[in-house]
Amino acid sequence: MATVDVRVAAVNVMLQLHNEGGSLSRLLPEAQQGVADKDKALLQALCFGMSRFSGQLSGLVDSLLSKPLKRKDTDVYLLMQLGVFQLAFTRVAPHAAVDNAVAAVKKMGKPWAKGLVNAVLRNYQRQPAALLAKLDEPAALSHPAWLLKRFKRDWPEHWQSIVEQNNRQAPMTLRVNQSKIKCEDYLHKLDSAGIQATRSDAIETAIQLQSPVAVQSLPAFEQGEVSVQDAAAQYAAVVLGRGEGQRLLDACAAPGGKTAHALEHGQWDEVVALDQDADRLARVEETLMRLQLSDRCQLQCADAANTEQWWDKKQFDVILLDAPCSGTGVIRRHPDIKLLRRNTDIDQLVQTQQQLLQSLWKTLKPGGKLLYATCSVLKPENEHQVNRFLEQQEDAALAEFDLPVGLARPNAGIQILPGDQELDGFFYSLLVKAG
């Protein structure tokens, strides 16, 4: 079967992302099927890099064009961004970056643009620093203006660090299934496989790889000895506790990492995992089957906020609400968030989170605990959300817990910012119901 040029494939993915939405995690697997095996990793690197630095790349290309291209030629515009990305951020030889971009124009069926692409990239090569210096702040920092404004307002002393971390590639972190193997023993397995890794200082179950690898190359991955999960997300199971004889609800469970870790970590009497997206719930099932945990968890496809749809009126001892959120704490891992998320989304997400908190609270036993979590760094989704709930819910109180990292938020919880001990940005708040 004929394969697609990797640069053309990258342009096509980014075109879909801009025009139709979706996400890289959904678009890339299909696109990778069309390129040569040797180019699959490169395709991912190009798409992630173009997403990560989209603001800067578009600003630079705009400054080099005498007039904007027509909408039907957005693919050419994106190809020029790809060329600038390779010139500015990779070790590809400059002449190869230019030549390959020019060659890709013909493969895209637009040979008229060869001269334009060549001229733009050559002009960039002559004055990269001067061009970069002329960009406005959102473009230079590759963050939309609305998001920068929110970061500055919520984190006046930390916003620059947040932005800097967002523009870095996140490390690949593993969660060792300690019910099967000790971390030290798994580190020896990695070493024998030629994979360099170290223990994370953040949590005892986490191992950080020096460089990302395909999960298929991880020793005993299919046997359930290890999973891929950032260390910040691994705190959820620790805060939830061991759960002996208790009933646990994971209200928004997909893709299943926290559900699985809770089962690995604790001895729950019953675990129910919900998600309203059937496809994403299938991923939870696949994860639990790989880890040999599926017999210990009930999966239901349902909207957690609509308790009439799924709740059996038997209250839970513990609830994990890993709420839908802006994802602004995991931008370094999902850089397409900067392209896909809109300012108007935040108010809608806050309303959804509020509805979930209110609906799920009645399913919690008196004396029970609800762990509210997001992978956001925006205060309206986190401490403001919790404070509002505490004001409205007379039988709710904040429970104290400790994490070895993060900023304590008065009367709300703990906020981890991106890059703290190499972690993703996360928020945790533990609420207890009056007995």
Per-chain topology:
Layout: H1 6-20, H2 24-32, H3 40-52, H4 54-64, H5 74-89, H6 94-107, H7 114-126, H8 128-133, H9 137-141, H10 145-154, H11 159-166, E1 173-176, H12 183-192, E2 197-199, E3 206-209, E4 226-228, H13 231-240, E5 247-250, H14 257-265, E6 270-275, H15 278-290, E7 298-301, H16 307-310, E8 316-322, H17 337-340, H18 343-361, E9 364-374, H19 383-392, E10 396-398, E11 407-409, E12 413-416, E13 426-433
Parallel strand pairs: 5-6, 5-8, 6-7, 8-9
Antiparallel strand pairs: 1-3, 1-4, 2-3, 9-13, 10-13, 11-12, 12-13
Helix pairs in contact: 1-2, 1-3, 1-5, 2-3, 4-5, 5-6, 5-7, 6-7, 10-11, 13-14
Explain how this protein is built:
The protein has 435 residues and is α/β, with parallel strands linked by helices. The protein is 46% helix and 15% strand. The strands form 2 sheets. Strands 5, 6, 7, 8, 9, 10, 11, 12 and 13 form a 9-stranded mixed beta sheet that branches. The chain has a 4-stranded antiparallel beta sheet with strand order 2-3-1-4, covered by helices on one side. Strand 2 and strand 3 form a beta hairpin. Helix 1 packs across helix 5 (74-89). It is globular, with a radius of gyration of 23 Å.
Please provide a brief summary of the model.
This protein has 435 residues and is α/β, with parallel strands linked by helices. Helices cover 46% and strands 15% of the residues.
Low-confidence stretches: none
The overall strand count is 13
Helix content: 40-55%
Give the mean pLDDT.
Answer: 96
CATH topology of the largest domain: Rossmann fold
How much beta, percentage-wise? Answer: 5-15%
- Report Rg: 23 Å
The CATH architecture of the largest domain is: 3-Layer(aba) Sandwich
The tally of domains stands at 3
CATH class of the largest domain: Alpha Beta
The secondary structure category is: alpha/beta
> What is the overall silhouette?
globular
How would you name the CATH homologous superfamily of the largest domain? Vaccinia Virus protein VP39
